[in-house]
Design brief:
It is built from 13 helices and eleven strands.
Length: about 350
């Protein structure tokens, strides 16, 4: 695997973490998380897509989602929902509840993160650290589309690859201690956790698997992808990419299309548009963006951009300009959220 290619995509789609919850639940308990499309606008304004995850710090629980068999989670486990599926956490399988949007509104208004809640009965205790990652999916995110609906990571203490186990302990410590910079540390930790989860998923892919990650893993296609991501503005031809890949043009074209799902030159164009979309969202001028992503004229770039996105570059910039986003409102701590949830007050 070429790790630079994965890193480049994660940077290009602006992976960012996030908002945190610390949940202390006592059996019997159940809580349903809403779909990412509902959560993202409240917690991460301006982010196109949200990825939710849960770290089981203490105890155990079950997680279920539509068309997915119940999964038992134990201390040290991490569960990730790359596509933002609604899902339910509970003390036992089969328990159901409606999503509670009030908790997301409270988190969005909170002046201190993570937001802590205690709920449930009087039985076995479970401590869960929850977070959300945001990223762009428009106009082109090759990674998210190739990930499964659920990534489940077990990283028990004593494992030779057990740094994720340390992530659990650090996340809990940072969420409790509230030292200066804790929010930034938690956000960066969540990004690292997600990258490691993707790498481990890649290691378990069957040989016959297709998709972008399978392309990254493939020797020839991986070299072609690395070349594209290393120099996206370069005037690549299929022959140039084949030379980089150490394959014939026909062999690369066939293998690339089989694994990645599109021809190399189409992939190059789409990735250029993703980079362009990010530059435009930061307020860059259309002319500058066109040359930065490899187009010799603004007109040619504008035609390609509108063909893929349905919008002119200027319209995209106006609709997605992140410099116009408002800061999150700040609210009071220690308030009652619902009959089922109690927000735990923290000393100032």
């Amino acid at each position: 695997m070429n790790s630079d290619t994965l890193s480049d995509v994660l940077q290009g789609v602006r992976l960012t973490g996030a908002i945190f919850f610390e949940l202390r639940a006592r059996a019997p308990w159940v809580e349903t998380s809403a779909e990412g499309s509902t959560v993202a606008p409240q917690l991460l304004p301006g982010v196109q897509h949200s990825i939710s995850y849960h770290v089981i710090a203490e105890g155990r629980c079950w997680v279920t989602a539509k068309d997915i068999a119940p999964i038992q989670l134990e201390a040290g486990d991490i569960i990730i929902f790359p596509h933002g599926d609604a899902h339910t956490l509970s003390s036992a399988p089969g328990l159901t509840a409606k999503a509670n949007p009030a908790i997301y509104k409270e988190a969005a208004a909170s002046s201190s993160l993570p937001v802590s809640y205690a709920f449930g009965g009087s039985g076995e205790s479970t401590l869960i650290v929850c977070g959300i990652l945001g990223c762009d999916v428009r106009p082109f995110n090759p990674l998210i589309a190739t990930l499964p609906r659920v990534l489940h990571i077990r990283d028990r203490a004593g494992s030779t690859r057990g740094w994720l186990n340390q992530f659990v302990h650090v996340a809990v410590a940072e969420s409790r201690d509230r030292r200066p910079g804790a929010q930034s540390i938690l956000a960066r930790l969540s990004e690292l956790m997600f990258v490691e989860a993707v790498r481990r998923h890649l290691e378990t892919l069957p040989v016959e698997e297709t998709g972008w990650l399978a392309g990254v893993r493939d020797p020839a296609v991986g070299r072609a992808l690395a070349a594209i991501h290393r120099q996206p503005a370069h005037g690549w031809s299929l022959e140039d990419l084949a030379r980089e890949a150490g394959a014939s043009r026909s062999a690369l074209a066939d293998r690339f299309a089989l694994l990645v799902g599109r021809p190399p030159m189409q992939y190059l164009m789409q990735w250029r548009m993703q980079l362009a979309a990010g530059l435009l969202a930061r307020g860059a001028k259309v002319t500058h963006v066109a040359f930065d992503v490899g187009y010799e004229s603004e007109a040619a770039f504008s035609r390609a951009f509108k063909k893929l996105t349905g919008h002119s570059p200027g319209t995209w910039r106006d609709r997605n300009d992140r410099s116009t986003l408002r800061s999150r409102p700040r609210g009071d701590e220690g308030v009652r959220v619902s009959a089922r949830w109690t927000k735990v007050a923290r000393p100032a």
